[in-house]
Write a structure and sequence with these properties.
It is a single chain. This protein is of the alpha+beta class. Helices cover about 45% and strands about 30% of the residues. The chain contains six helices and eight strands. The chain is globular.
């Protein structure tokens, strides 16, 4: 794992801030979706090209087939968000929300449902993070980048900046549907150009 982006004190403050932000996001999402979203403790790391390969391999082992929603955020805090859904995730979500896949265009309806849920998750989480860090940000509309395809064939725009910078900050959050052991995954990457400003924010809190 690449650790050069932040020193130990900065990582501790960043981790504490992200944990608080996800706690707030989890409470907001639980209220919005009537308590069915549970967030796990986020994993925060600086990833290199080697780490990226390991991340892709892990995703392939975890999800045989996936759907991926991606959303960009911009401003003082900028980057990309991917919401990863496994094949079982959609079935559980459909059951919880009472969605009937037999009506009309099933794929179109599934994509709309994924967009709705994914946008709520992504916007709530990144807005809480930016608010606590006091770094302004905005979000572009979400896009379905992959729909029920083999994980090995997914095009990961999420890590595009890694090729230029050599390493980047990754925040990985797994969340579950209440009463269902079915994970979804939220992956946030921060643009390398935002790191200096982020380090300044963290330095004030050490």
């Amino acid at each position: 794992m690449a650790e050069e982006l932040f020193n130990e004190d900065e990582r501790d403050v960043l981790g504490e801030t992200i944990n608080i932000a996800m706690g707030k996001a989890g409470a907001a999402l639980a209220q919005a979706f009537e308590g069915f979203v549970n967030l796990q403790v986020p994993e925060i790391s600086s990833v290199s090209a080697a780490d990226l390969l390991a991340t892709r391999q892990r995703l392939e082992k975890t999800y045989e087939r996936i759907s991926v929603l991606e959303q960009e955020f911009f401003g003082e805090l900028a980057g990309r968000i991917a919401v990863v859904y496994g094949p079982a995730s959609y079935a559980a979500l459909r059951n919880v929300l009472g969605f009937d896949d037999r009506d009309g265009d099933g794929r179109r309806q599934r994509e709309e449902l994924l967009l709705e849920l994914g946008n709520a998750l992504a916007s709530t989480c990144i807005n809480e993070v930016s608010a606590l860090l006091e770094m302004r940000t905005g979000l572009r509309p979400p896009r379905v980048m992959a729909f029920d395809i083999p994980t090995s064939t997914a095009d990961w725009h999420l890590f595009a900046d890694l090729e230029m910078s050599g390493q980047m900050l990754l925040i990985d959050i797994v969340f579950h549907l209440e009463a269902h052991d079915v994970p979804f995954e939220l992956m946030i990457t921060i643009q390398p150009g935002c790191v200096p400003a982020l380090k300044q924010v963290l330095a004030k809190r050490i």
